[in-house]
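Hey, I was hoping to borrow your eyes for a little while. No rush at all, and the record is pasted right below:
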Amino acid sequence: MRILLLAPHPFFQLRGTPIAERALLQVLTAEGHEVDVLTFPEGEDPDLPNCRIHRVAAPAWARGVRPGFSLKKLICDASMLGRVLRMARRGRYDVVHAVEEAAFMALLVKRIFGVPYIYDMDSGLSRSMLDRFPALQAVRFLLDACERWAVRASCGTLAGCRALEAQARAWHPDGLIAPLEDVSLADGTAEAPDLIPEAWRRDPIVLYVGNLAPYQGVDLLLAGFARVLPEVPRARLVIMTGSHDRVPHYRSLAEELEIAGSVGFAGPRPVEALGACLRQATVQVSPRVHGDNTPMKIFSCLGSGRPLLATRLLSHTQVLDDSVALLVEPEPAALGEGLARLLKDPDLRERLAANALQLAQREFTPEAFRRKLLAFYDAVANRIAEKGNDGQTAGFEARATGGG
């Protein structure tokens, strides 16, 4: 079948949603589907068979688009909308696979050209807007109504986590809704010999991997780690991040807490080296303090063979339980106590790590991702074949009847 994938961000870049999109493309193109990807000007070509990358035009000052809403992103989205309509008019697509806010572009394509769309609900748009702009709380009912419309008008919704799945089902009880979690990236073959300073390589290492946005809880992590050192004086905290602009803030906070000598900041590493990085930890930590979406890194943490400490929030507990991670309340005393307990108890570390690895190998491997995605696409094909699609369903009908 012919698929138009709308990726409203730089693609490909080494960050959460683009990594998930690359995995999706690898599965679909390997099945023989032809995919056109429409995306922003920046990014690398993933070089996949049966996949063509189309980039929208945007002024030079609109480059450097970062996650979240911004004027740069708005400019690129506007350019993308015009290009989507031209491509839909010229191309005979069986379905549009729309990621995040691109669902509204796909909805317009459906109204004008009759092409169905899949809503790839990688994050809650309404919740994301409110997190960034709290003043919009007064019009939350409008934001929710728009997202509900996007779910209900789609031929199927892929939810990036269980919380989003529950929300989508509440909005469209009779709709085709399916979860599609990320996969563990801990099997990479690249090495990371320079992650841990030479002087620390015999010490217990607490490792945080991720950006330094406030919701990630790095303030909480530093405050909790300050409570660990009196009990485990040789403990070291390594923060691996690409968010260079906030590193000075957290260096200053570490100095205020008088733990700067035990805290190190490492820059980003290739995704292929993620497993090697995680395996250098004595304990991994995810101190998130806000949000519902499960961080992509959690799946790699599960598959790394190292124990994980995480805060007891929905973003974690929809995947983790007390058998696979040490879950603590998101406050400094609890986090510090949990870290100290894990660092001093090798049997607990071994048990949690073994259970986590079993879960990752059962549910969050590339093969599990492939199985879930193709089952969803088969269900979408059957639905569209039953309802018809203004002459656009040839590829779906062939697949639904076993001919594709």
The radius of gyration is 22 Å. The chain has 15 helices and 13 strands. Residues 366-387 form the longest helix (22 residues).
